[in-house]
Amino acid sequence: MENASSLGKIIISTPDNNDPNFVQTPILLVEHNDRGAVGFVLHFPLKRNLNELSEFTHYPPIPIYIGGPVDQEHLFFLHRRPDLIDDGTHIMDGIYYAGNFQQVLMHLQDQTLTEKDIRLFIGYAGWDPQQLEEEMKEGSWIVSEHPVAYAFHQI
Length: 155
Prior knowledge:
mainly beta; 3 helices; 13% helix; 37% strand; globular
């Protein structure tokens, strides 16, 4: 699997993947380079909304998803509004990773940014250099045919 072709791909765990964090799990890869890989699990809602977190009580009820087991103390996000959010990394087909979070908050509050344009995560899935490639060779992951926009599919 070529690193450059993995960015923006959705991988899915197979029954050969023995990690209980990843049972039939679709993950969107947002980074894949010589330092490793980063992605977000797409189908595990946290069952809490942004406005239920103490520091965000004045914001709309945007759902939060569990992006993976790494760094669950921070919020991460994908979005489709580079016209509103600066400094995001273009992943593929109009989907962006990260960017200026203060702009996210401002646009959520004035409702120019809505739930259909942003996906919030706590945590992420991460792999060391060559770890994902090895796991794919051993059959723990397959590349899905889902388009990157699947990341915004409503659960």
